[in-house]
Amino acid sequence: MPRPTDDDLFQSSTMTFGEHLEELRTCLIRAAAGLAVAVLLGFFVARPVVHLIEDPLRRALGTYYSRRALETFDEWRPRAGGGPALPYSRDEVRDAVVNRGLSFELREVHADRLAQVLGTGPTARSGTAVAFATDSLVPVLLWQPMARDPRVSITTLSAQEAFGIYVKAALLVGVVLASPWIFFQLWTFVAAGLYPHEKRWVWTFLPISIGLFLAGVLLAFFFVFDFVLDYLLKFNEWLGLDPDPRISEWLSFVLILPIGFGIGFQLPLVMLFLERIGVVEAETYASQWRIAVLVIVIASAVLTPADPYSMLFLAAPLCLLYFGGIGLCRWFGAADAPAQRQLATKASQ
After folding, report:
1. Banded pLDDT at 7 (limits 50, 70, 90)
2. Main-chain dihedrals φ then ψ at residue 16, nearest 5 degrees
3. CA-based nearest residue to 262, from 191, 204, 332, 321
4. pLDDT tens per residue, range 15-27
5. Number of C-alpha atoms within 13 angstroms, CB side, residue 36?
6. Annotated domain spans of the chain
7. pLDDT in tens, 281-323
8. Residues above pLDDT 90, as percent of the chain
9. pTM of the predicted model, to two decimals?
């Protein structure tokens, strides 16, 4: 055990319960003030952040509709046997869609009527057609840059919604910028109730805690989003639905997932801290791993949106971090073993 005695953890503390509450209030006020300052700074960079947040969704929608366009091309057949074929080969279309960043819509026209409109064909006599000539329709592909495809655009449904998006983006920036200060205040409150020799662990864990939080945020934003969006869009395709995403809903998703990952990544540090101050032993972590995995899965479902991919992408790293936390506890315990033997020898004398 890391503590030299089995005394109560707060026995030597001179702070009353009310003073602990006052310390908590002070730390929360300081954390909130730091967050407010960071959010104000976030307003200056919220616009490029909104565009940065849009990029994963735009890429996913572009991939989705590119795949749908190629499927439409492959499934098209002439209306009549021996009728006009598509004006491009599949290799040309794939090169345009995949490598050139273009999208297309497949439409059909009457070639003679189009020539008539363009003034390059004979004028049809009025009243000669008694029925619409379906079999003579000719396929054409209407090309445009993928970025201008209205299906890839991210919409708002009201004029004031854009302002709400701007505020949410500033809030996201503020949480990330203020995270070192917020974690500092939380660990300061924890340190207030510890033995003097245990407080050093707070200052050791603080930078690691900040690093783990930022690692979780970056993992969610630059890795998990693409997989989650691909799954959700494929589910839309399976149901035969075309997505029409709103930026405000996507931004809410962006706010929840990275923060959930950042909080979850604190797991090994919390485990090691509790072991260092003698609350939980490493052997207890190891013997209760099945219950811990169940709790991790439930917590991952709560901290992430309602899709299996995001839950699994959080639960899998947390399980690895849990077993990594057990390894850290045992490693630090082995490092403390000589000191513990000396304390035991002095106590026996």
Report:
1. very low
2. -80, 175
3. 321
4. 666 777 787 888 8
5. 6
6. 17-60+156-348, 79-148
7. 888 888 888 898 898 888 888 777 666 777 888 888 889 888 9
8. 4
9. 0.67
How far is residue 270's CA from residue 205's CA, in Å, rounded to a whole number?
9
User: Which three-class secondary structure string do you get for the chain?
Assistant: CCCCCCCCCCCCCCCCHHHHHHHHHHHHHHHHHHHHHHHHHHHHHHHHHHHHHHHHHHHHHHHHHHHHHHHHHHHCCCCCCCCCCCCCCHHHHHHHHHHCCEEEEEEEEEHHHHHHHHCCCCCCCCCCCCCCCHHHEEEEEEEEEHHHCCCCCCECCCCCHHHHHHHHHHHHHHHHHHHHHHHHHHHHHHHCCCCCCCHHHHHHHHHHHHHHHHHHHHHHHHHHHHHHHHHHHHHHHHCCCCCCCEHHHHHHHHHHHHHHHHHHCCHHHHHHHHHHCCCCCHHHHHHCHHHHHHHHHHHHHHHCCCCHHHHHHHHHHHHHHHHHHHHHHHHHHHHHHHHHHHHHHHHHC
Model pLDDT for residues 187-201, shown as the tens digit of each residue: 787 777 666 766 777
Virtual CA dihedral for 303, 307, 309, 311, nearest 10 degrees?
20
C-alpha pair distances (Å), 201 with each of 87, 89, 180, 273: 70, 66, 17, 7
b (16+ CB within 10 A) / e for 274-313: bbbbbebebeebeeeeeebeeebbebbeebbeeeebbbbb
Integer Cα distance of 98 and 87 in angstroms: 18
| pLDDT above 90 (res 336) | no
Least confident of 77-91, 205-219, 255-269, 330-344: 330-344
C-alpha 274/C-alpha 280 separation (Å) is 6
Q: Report the percentage of the chain scoring pLDDT > 70.
A: 84
Whose structure tokens read 């972590």?
285
